[in-house]
C-alpha cells in the first residue's frame, strides 16, 4: 500500500476555528469581512451559532478553515462544549475602545481552555483599530497580555479591513505548520521502523551465511579471510 504523501495528508484537512469574546466586539463582522468582504454598520447580536468555510492558500497549498461564530452574550449562546469541540484554532477578540472587553479576556481564555480538548492555536485580536480617538486599550497592553499567555497578537479593523485576513491566516498557517511537523515526524518514525526491519533481515542473512560457512568448514572446505 502506498504511503500518502505529506501533501495529500495536509490538503485534506479542515480546521475548525472559533471566534470568542464579549458581545459587540466585532466577531461577526470580522468573519463577514474575511469571508465575503462585507461590513454591517448596525449588525445585531448573533443568535445561536453560525459558521463559514473558507479556503486559504498556505505555502501554495489549499487549506480549508471552518470558522464558527456565536454570541458573546450568555443568553444568546449555544451549548458551550459543542461550540468548542474539535476546535484547533481561536480568535480571542476584544474592542480596543472598550476596556471592559479587554479585562474579560482572561475569562474567555479560561473557558477556551476548559472546554477544548487539545492545545488550541490562539490569536488575541484587538478589533476596531479605526476608532483611534476612542482607544481605551494601548497596543502595548495587548502585546504584553498576549506574551504573558503565549498567544499571537494583532490589532484589526473589520470596518476598514486592516489586518483582518492576516489575523485568520496567522492562525491557520500555524496549525498547518504544526500538522506538517507532525506528519514529518511520523514519516521519520516509519523510516526508522523500516530501517530496523532491514537490519533485522541483515542479521538473519548473516546467520544463514555463517551456517553455510560452518557447514563448508565441516566438509573440509576453505575459508581463510
Ligand atoms: N468602528 C468599528 N465598528 C465595528 C468594527 N467591527 C464591528 N463593528 C461594529 O460593532 C458592532 C458589533 O459588531 P458585531 O460584529 O455584531 O459584534 P459581535 O462580537 O459579533 O457581537 P455578538 O454577536 O453580540 O457577540 C456593530 O455595530 C459593528 O458594525 C470595527 O472594526 N470598527
Automatic annotation (TrEMBL):
<dbReference type="InterPro" id="IPR005225">
    <property type="entry name" value="Small_GTP-bd"/>
</dbReference>
<comment type="similarity">
    <text>Belongs to the small GTPase superfamily. Rab family.</text>
</comment>
<dbReference type="Pfam" id="PF00071">
    <property type="entry name" value="Ras"/>
</dbReference>
<dbReference type="InterPro" id="IPR001806">
    <property type="entry name" value="Small_GTPase"/>
</dbReference>
<dbReference type="InterPro" id="IPR027417">
    <property type="entry name" value="P-loop_NTPase"/>
</dbReference>
<protein>
    <submittedName>
        <fullName>Ras- protein RABA5a</fullName>
    </submittedName>
</protein>
<dbReference type="InterPro" id="IPR050209">
    <property type="entry name" value="Rab_GTPases_membrane_traffic"/>
</dbReference>
